[in-house]
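FAQ: What does the model actually see?

It sees only this:
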Amino acid sequence: MTSETSDADFHATLHSLRVWDTRLPGFDPDTAPTDPLPLFREWLVDAAKAGQLEPHTMTLATVDAEGRPDVRTLMLHDADERGWHFASHATSEKGRQLAARPEAALGFYWPAVGRQIRLRGRVTACGPEESRADLAVRSRGALAAALTGHQSEVLPSLTDLAEASAAAWERAGAEPDAVAPTWTRYVLDATEAEFFQGDAARRHTRLHYRRTPAGPWTRTLLWP
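And it is asked to produce this:
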C-alpha cells in the first residue's frame, strides 16, 4: 500500500497541471459536413495520427431507475450510418440501465489535438447474431474477459477472479468461437452531436448538430 498523499502535495500537483502544451489544429465550422459522422471519423483519425493514445476510448453516461447518473469508460467498436457501436454484458450495470432507460450520452476527449466530441441519443441492443459476431473478431483477451462474466456483481476475493479468469483464458484459447450468452452489441443513434476545438487563447470553437427523428441535421455555433 502506498503512503497517503498529503493535501499539500495533491493541491500543488493539481494546480501545476496545464492543458494543451502543444500546437493545436484549426477548425473552420463553415467547412463542416451537414452530417456529424464524416467529421467524427475525420477527427478520430486526426487524433490517432497526432499520437493520441487510445483515441477509440470514450465515456458512456447512463441513468439508473431512480434517475441517478452513471458513467464509465469503454471502447468504440464502430461508427457508421446506424450510429456509434459499443458492447457489454446485458446483465452488467450499464446493460440493465440501458434496458430500463435506453437513452445515453458518449464523450470523446483527445488532448493531443485539444478536441472533444459529445453525443446524445437513443441506444438499441443488437440481436444475438450481431452480438456474437462482435465478440468473434476481438482478441483472445477480450473473449476471455467476456467469458469470465459476472460483470458488476460482488466479487468475494481476488482469488476468485484469478481462478475464473484463468479458466476463461484457457477456454478462449481452446474455443476461439466460444459464445458469451449475455454479450451484447449496442448502437447509439445520435440526435445531438457537439464538436469542440480548443484554442490556446480560450476562443474555443463549438459546433452543435441536432436533428429530429424525421428531419435533417441542423448546425449551430455555441459560445464557449
